[in-house]
Design a protein that fits this description.
With about 230 residues, the protein is an all-alpha fold. The protein folds into 2 domains: about 150 residues, no CATH class; about 55 residues, no CATH class. It is about 85% helix and about 0% strand. It is built from 9 helices and no strands. The longest helix has about 45 residues. The N terminus is likely disordered.
Length: about 230
């Protein structure tokens, strides 16, 4: 029960990466758009319209990309599994030698390699799993993974996109104040994303949060510079 609770408290790496991908992308893209338009002198209603359009497009596109890319990984794993099964059946000695290479790389002596090879060969599933993981460096992808990835990435993108856009709904007469508040709240969210990542992995909580903050705001600031350039032009 304790082990199960620990596993539930720590999301799988793919879920973590999906959440970070979607939320960071949503914050950075919409922040860059609203800052660029505000800096160019566009009316706030146009900033809101463009932000909402970007929010919708990013949410759908990121979810779709997550679905198709995860589905492609699943298809690749399945096709490589079938290929390995054929090779295990038709060229077993070649596959045995590949296992020997893996075991030698782990530091086993030759007698140990031969003993372990016999044990592995007696369990076809173990043999296949070793080849998939340590020869091809592929991980299994569950059937539900494409759908789950699309939901997580899409939801995280939606959440991230809302943050820099909200101030413009409440400060329609002051684009400068709305922009500054958007930068502040976007920075807070980016820092929390990095902090959350470090909590679930390893590394300094502060350093991870600041790294995400700098990368995200730096990317969003590019939109601001383009807006200033367009306004000057």
């Amino acid at each position: 029960m304790a082990k199960q609770a620990q596993m539930e408290a720590h999301p799988r790496p793919t879920l973590l990466s999906d959440f970070i991908l979607g939320s960071q992308d949503g914050v950075v893209n919409v922040l860059g758009i609203v800052l660029g338009l505000a800096a160019s002198g566009a009316a706030i209603k146009f900033v809101i319209i463009a932000g909402l359009a970007a929010l919708a497009a990013e949410t759908v596109s990121m979810g779709a990309v997550a679905y198709t890319s995860t589905r492609s990984r699943r298809s690749l794993y399945e096709s490589e599994t079938q290929r390995e099964l054929v090779e295990m059946r038709e060229v077993p000695e070649l596959e045995r030698e590949e296992v020997r290479v893996i075991l030698r790389g782990w530091g086993y002596s030759e007698p140990e390699v031969n003993d372990l090879l016999q044990r592995i060969e007696a369990k076809p599933k173990a043999w296949l799993d070793i080849m998939m993981a340590f020869e091809l460096h592929l991980s299994p992808v569950e059937e539900s993974a494409p759908r789950n990835s699309a939901i997580i990435v899409g939801s995280a993108t939606l959440l991230g996109s809302i943050v820099p856009l909200l101030p413009f709904f409440f400060l329609r007469q002051n684009a400068v104040a709305a922009s500054l508040i958007a930068v502040f709240f976007s920075g807070v969210m980016l820092f929390m994303i990095g902090y959350y990542e470090a909590r679930l992995t390893i590394g300094s909580l502060l350093r991870s949060g600041l790294r995400m903050l700098v990368i995200g705001l730096g990317s969003g600031f590019a939109g601001f510079l383009i807006g200033l350039a367009l306004r000057a032009y």
